[in-house]
Amino acid sequence: MTGRTKEEERRPDRVAVRRLRLAHFRNYSGLSLSLSPAHVVLTGENGSGKTNLLEAVSFLSPGRGLRRATYPDVTQNGAPDGFAIHAALECAAYGEVEVGTGLAGNAIGDTARKARINGAQAASADALLDYSRIIWLAPAMDGLFTGPAADRRRFLDRMVLAIDTAHGRRVLDYEKAMRSRNRLLTEERSDAGWLDAIEAQMAELGTAIAAARAELMHLITSMIERLPQEGPFPRSDCFLEGALEERIASTPAVDLEEDFRRALRDGRPRDRAAGRTLEGPHRTDLIVRHRPKSMPAGLCSTGEQKALLIGLVLAHARLTGELSGMAPILLLDEIAAHLDEGRRAALFGIIDDLGGQAFMTGTDRALFDALGDRAQFFTVSGGTLGAG
Ligand SMILES: Nc1ncnc2c1ncn2[C@@H]1O[C@H](COP(=O)(O)OP(=O)(O)OP(=O)(O)O)[C@@H](O)[C@H]1O
Fold it and tell me: Where along the chain is ATP bound (predicted)?
């Protein structure tokens, strides 16, 4: 007997950043911070380093973080030896673990960022997903529903990490194979055998990517169904517009991988003329509709889009917690300032209920007063932190 109720047994474990050290990251020459497991509120003037700190935490997951910055950009101006981020994470499931990441020297590119777990180099930054899940919401995402499909695809692919930690790597491998195919097609006498091999790889990866996205859509839709009808953030209807994903839903019996491979082969003259691959999961779009208004998200007002996005991100956070067993660390950049008092209180209630540690920023400390001792407060100024 554990003495825990069924409800408690289902609750994901809290993962908390207990120590954070930064070296040469953005405007932080060096930072050493001890934290309690409570939420973290960072307030300070514009340009003081609040978002930079959230960005550093976002680098404790694979990918290019909440700003999608290049690694030279996040390295402090003038620092010759790259940047380093170290954190001690605490979780009931594994105790405490030291994770680290950084970039040495002038290395650039997605594969260059290294990850260390308890001092040992990991095969890739994907290993960080075994110790925490990090989900963010930042002002840069405000145009998600009106901007390019590529941004929504990236958002979608990050959501898929909730069910498949290898998904990000698969997407990168697919894109690399596609770039090789595009290059080969432009050559005057391209090697047909080589093209066959690349297309077979694209078909295998592309079908797996589409299947994982379709599965995620199914799960997120069921999660949204379980949320209260009259919550503070509107519910969304999400679906995928993409040939492969649609066929997975409508004709599951077909051998999609073989179909896609054949489509790529048959499409060579068309793609050669276009100078790029015109069919595949790299063209998929995530369509989001505002359910109460029955309207495409892109047609909603700025405030409505923001509320819809918050709702979607919180639904994803809940799903991630349920599937991984770890309540995600939330990075909420400049969110509280855009909400009225009622919605702000509701947001604080939801993040408590999700069970994870949340990092929040704003210029006005008073907006977070309601958190009381559920949060630790810091003021940020010129890349240094003081008690808030
Ligand atoms: N590579 C870098 N090296 C040194 N400083 C940098 C680097 N990149 C950005 N900065 C500085 O970091 C500061 C911005 O910090 P940040 O975006 O975290 O501000 P913020 O506190 O979130 O501000 P706001 O309230 O305006 O969003 C700017 O002054 C910028 O010049």
Answer: 44-51
User: Pocket residues for ligand 1 (CB within 6 Å)?
Assistant: 26-27, 44, 46-52, 73-77, 363, 380
Query: Tell me: domain 148-299, CATH 1.20.1050.90, correct?
Result: yes
| 70 assigned ligand-binding residue | no
* pLDDT tens by residue, 56-96: 999 999 999 999 998 889 999 988 888 999 999 999 999 99
Quick: pLDDT tens for 140-155.
Answer: 999 999 999 999 999 9
Could you tell me the two tokens for 86?
């170290």
- Rounded to whole angstroms, how far apart are CA atoms 346 and 251? 42
Which CATH topology does 1-145+302-388 take? Rossmann fold (3.40.50)
CA distances from 64 to 59, 127, 141 (A): 7, 15, 14
Atom in ligand 1 nearest the alpha carbon of residue 54: 18
- Ligand 1 centroid, distance to 27 Cα (angstroms): 6
Stretch(es) of the chain classified as CATH 1.20.1050.90:
148-299
